[in-house]
Design a protein that fits this description.
The protein has 185 residues and is α+β, with helices and mostly antiparallel strands. It has five helices and eight strands, in the order H-H-H-E-E-H-E-E-E-E-H-E-E. The longest helix is centred in the first third of the chain and has 19 residues. Pfam families: Ysc84.
Length: 185
């Protein structure tokens, strides 16, 4: 094994270990459990941040990730499972994974919802074998308690992300670079 192959193997082994440490209790629990967690997450979102109801009403679909666990120590990763809702009904299940490298240490958990504001954005997401969140996503942020900024509610962005419920010791929670893949629970 060459030095380069060993390094690649060690990085892969480390990333696998970190993702295993990111276990968030959703593996192997089935569609019924994921749907129940999605219902609970949406209820919490709309109750704690009433401004997000306007996003729901304007969107053509929502990808709900009830619990994403992220951990890092130089090499990091995150994992979560959730459901895509269209017209209030679950149409598919997805996993969210991310790998990261750099100066980082800690762990956190959070929930997020992607609001698809156009049919084109939703169709592109569903047609993709593995959709990666990028710079084209606009983040809705709370500016005072339960209020969302008016700019976010009236945004023309095709996808709006709401990240909430952060708990842990890793600073910041974004979904840039997160890859979403369809799964069978």
């Amino acid at each position: 094994m060459t030095h380069s192959n060993r390094r690649t193997f060690m990085i892969g082994l480390g990333a696998t270990g970190l993702l295993a440490a990111c276990d968030n209790g959703l593996r192997g629990t089935g569609a019924t459990t994921i749907d129940a967690r999605v219902d609970s997450t949406l209820s919490q979102l709309y109750n704690n941040y009433p401004g997000t109801a306007a996003l729901r009403d304007k969107s053509v679909g929502q990808l709900v990730m009830p619990l994403v666990t992220e951990a890092g120590f130089g090499i990091g990763g995150s994992y979560g499972r959730g459901a895509l809702r269209v017209g209030g009904a679950t149409v598919d299940y997805y996993s969210a994974t991310e790998a990261s490298f750099g100066l980082q240490i800690g762990a956190q958990q959070y929930a997020h919802v992607l609001f698809f504001m156009t049919q084109e954005a939703l169709q592109g997401f569903r047609a993709s074998p593995g959709w990666a969140a990028g710079a084209d996503i606009e983040y809705a942020v709370s500016n005072r308690g339960e209020n969302l900024s008016a700019e976010t509610i009236t945004s023309l962005s095709p996808v709006i992300a709401v990240v909430f419920g952060q708990a842990g010791l890793l600073a910041g929670a974004t979904i840039n670079g997160t890859k979403y893949s369809r799964i069978i629970p």
